[in-house]
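Q: Structure tokens for this one, please.
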Amino acid sequence: MAYIPRQPPADPALLPGFFSSELNNIARSTVTDTVQLQPQSVAPAKPRAGLLVEADGTNWNPGSGAGLYIYRAGAWVFLG
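A: Here is the predicted structure, written as tokens:
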């Protein structure tokens, strides 16, 4: 579930309940049991160490075809 921020209430008396609800929504949106990567057809513009990416292997092939890669020491490393 993605977090979508809500507009805060105009009445200051309602802010404590609003913030409590928003923090619970944020917590629920960040707790998952799985991660699903979408295959990418181009390399990320600004890769950083530790970045995980699923390459499509056709339009973007970092070296070993389609699959999961991590950016490490200035290069894409195939994970499988």
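A few notes: Helices lie at 15-30. The longest strand covers residues 67-72.
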